[in-house]
Design brief:
Layout lengths: L18 H5 L1 H29 L4 H24 L6 H29 L1 H27 L7 H7 L6 H8 L1 H4 L5
Helix pairs in contact: 2-3, 2-5, 3-4, 4-5
Length: 182
Amino acid sequence: MPTDGRAPRPALPREFPGSRLLRHGIRRQLAFYLLIGIGQLVVDWLCFVLLTAWAMPVAPANVIARVCAAVLGFTANGTMTFKSRLRPAQLARFVTAWIPLTLANTLAVWALEAFGGLHLAWLIKPLVDALTAAAGFVVARHWIFRTHPKEPEAALAAGSLQRGPVSDQAAAGTAADEVDVR
């Protein structure tokens, strides 16, 4: 308490008010995915603009730019957004999902360039990338970086499993092993 007649300062919160929400679940994942996605968008767009400004055709420039952004996205989203240890199986799923998303993205950007010129493609590409990223989040969350039943601790940390008698049995493998198939 100040002795010079000033009013006491209010106590500062111990943590940012939204930080508790960001620590768990889909809100935290969406926040990290958005921040990492902005970084990916900048890398993707800068590479695309530079390559096409140097007279590279739109389709290969878009694929190269997306590869550069994908390296950032896979590692950062895998480790920070979805808190996963990166494994070869996840990389295989990522590439399997990335190819059709990149094909759709490249076709859209190529059509923009054919319809309205290179400058229109430069302007609208971030919107196309944002739409592709929305689909990518769903695929990443539910397929690429999903938590497997063999990893109950990771599932509990991610919030996809709850402790209790049923999940403890499932984590131990006792319930699944005793199924009678006749």
